[in-house]
Amino acid sequence: MSINLVVGAYGALSLIAAVLQGFYKNIPAGSAVLMGLGGSLMIAGLFTSGMLAVGLVGVGAILAHISAIINGTKMHGQINKRHHFIRFGLSAFLIVGMLMEQKVW
């Protein structure tokens, strides 16, 4: 399976989450925008190459993660450490995968 498929799926799911968050309005609008921006940057990274692609995916994953922290705190009053540890691992996997795919190291 190509890392591009995983990045595309994660970016698309982040965009879907952002739209649903905006629709249901159960979290701050800024957080939904942040999630949407993160997903958009991850997808944009698929249409570029080299370190720009890696950077876009990395920044997009970070923005989506920050949004998830804000959302979890707003909805549950605390941070779910396990959820964010898994998210961090997935983000690291995506960035390393993109580095290898782009052959920049």
Q: What can you see in these coordinates?
A:
It is a single chain. With 105 residues, this protein is an all-alpha fold. The protein is built from 4 helices and no strands. Helix 2 (29-45) runs antiparallel to helix 3 (50-76). The two termini are 21 Å apart.
Specify the structural class.
mainly alpha
Question: How does the overall form come out from the CA principal axes?
Answer: globular
What integer is the average pLDDT?
Answer: 90
Task: Report how far the terminal alpha carbons are from each other.
Answer: 21 Å
Please tell me how large the radius of gyration is: 14 Å
Query: What's the structural domain tally?
Result: 1
Listing every helix as H and every strand as E from the N terminus to the C terminus, the arrangement reads HHHH
Give the helix tally. Answer: 4
The helix content is over 70%
The tally of beta strands, per DSSP, is: 0
Largest sheet: none
Provide the low-confidence segments as ranges: none
Strand residue percentage:
under 5%
SSE layout and pairings?
Blueprint: H1 3-24, H2 29-45, H3 50-76, H4 81-102
Q: What does this entry show, briefly?
A:
The protein has 105 residues and is mainly α. It is 84% helix and 0% strand. The protein has one domain.
